[in-house]
Structure formats: C-alpha cells, structure tokens
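Hey, quick one: can you model this chain's 3D structure?
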Amino acid sequence: MPLASNPLIQVTPGLMIWTIVAFLITLFVLKRYAFGPIQKMLDDRREHTRRSIEEADNARDEARKLLEEHRALIGQARSDAEGIVAEARKTRESMEQRMREETEAERQRRLEDTRKEIAAETARALQQIRAEVADLTLEAASRVVGRTLDAKRDQELIEEAIAGLDFSRLEESA
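Sure thing. Here's the predicted structure for all 174 residues.
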C-alpha cells in the first residue's frame, strides 16, 4: 500500500483552504474574546504580586525601624537603670558615711561625758579624802595633845596643812 493512497496524507486543496479559514476564525475569536481577558488577568495578577512584594518590603523596613527603636529604648532603659543603681549606691555610701560620723560623734560625746563624770567623781572623792584626812588628823592631834582642841580653829589649821599637801599622786593613780 502506497503512502499516497491514505486519505489523511493526501493533499486536497479545498480541505486545506477550509482548515486555514477555520483556524483563522478560531484564532480571531480566541484573540478577541479569550486572549484579552486572559492577558488582563495575568497583568492584574502580576501587578497584585508586585504590590504585595512592595508592601512586604515596606513592612520589613518598618519592622527594622521599629526593631532599631526598640533596641535604642532598651539601651536607654539599661543606661537609666545603671544610673539609678549608681545613684542608689552613692546615696547608700553617703548615708553609711553619715551614720559612721554620727556614731563617732555620739561615741566622742559619751566618752567626753564619761571623762567629765570621772573627773567630777575624782574631785568629789579627793574632797571627801581631804575631809577624812582632816578629821583623822584632828583626832590624831587630839590624842597626841591629850585634849580636845577648838574645832573651828583646829579645822582651819588642818585645812591649811592639807592645802599644802601634794595629792597629785592620788589623782595620777586614779
């Protein structure tokens, strides 16, 4: 069987013309009613994608700005916190220093009061010792002389004698 005898392979000029005309009509109809809307839909989709990408870029830039602002605020908060802590330490140290100074001043005041009390007690004790010595001397003199002396005159003589005595050794030992 020869190839030319197959009706699908044979060239028929009328059929070819009608096939080309049908193809051109179909192409015209598709171009007018299908390709236009399809192309418009593709362009709209491309534009929508481009806008979405731009919005995403803008959102990313905005997020970066917000992140930088957030980091700056955190850094500022940290420095403020460090400043507050440093100020608290300084205040604590000044309060401790003031407390030490007040404690030292109170200790010095009490020490001075104690010294004054000791000096007053020492003076009172020495006065009492002088009075006792005067009484003992008067009694010793009365026994030696064998009679009672005039109390007032004897007292004056004894006080003059005691005034001449050196009681500094008693004060040093106290």
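One thing worth noting: The chain has a mean pLDDT of 86.
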